[in-house]
């Protein structure tokens, strides 16, 4: 299929759909070129590059602040499961 046929197919499918989540995802894909979508969380919500970087920075800050559980502590806890 050539590019024009592909575009027409997408337009027709968009016109037919009532799925707002699908439309939001397509819109996000088309508008987030500088902040691309990298995946989805467990709720099916989009995760962009900037969101992922922010989550990593927050996790690193928690680790630097001592807010973590060591492998040894997890092993001790799992003995009681």
Task: Report on this structure.
This protein has 81 residues and is mainly alpha-helical. It folds into two domains: 1-31, no CATH class; 35-81, no CATH class. 62% of the residues lie in helices and 9% in strands. The chain has a two-stranded antiparallel ribbon. The longest helix is centred in the C-terminal third of the chain and has 16 residues, at 49-64. The protein is elongated. The mean pLDDT is 90.
Kindly summarize this structure in a few lines.
The chain has 81 residues and is mostly helical.
Biggest sheet architecture: 2 strands, antiparallel
Radius of gyration: 21 Å
Oligomer: single chain
Question: Kindly state the mean pLDDT as a whole number?
Answer: 90
The number of helical elements comes to: 4
Count of discrete domains: 2
Strand residue content:
5-15%
Strand order of the largest sheet: 1-2
Q: Could you list the spans in which at least 5 consecutive residues all have pLDDT below 50?
A: none
Which terms would index this structure?
single chain, 81 residues, mainly alpha, two-stranded antiparallel sheet, 62% helix
Fold blueprint:
Layout: H1 3-16, H2 20-31, E1 37-40, E2 46-48, H3 49-64, H4 71-78
Antiparallel strand pairs: 1-2
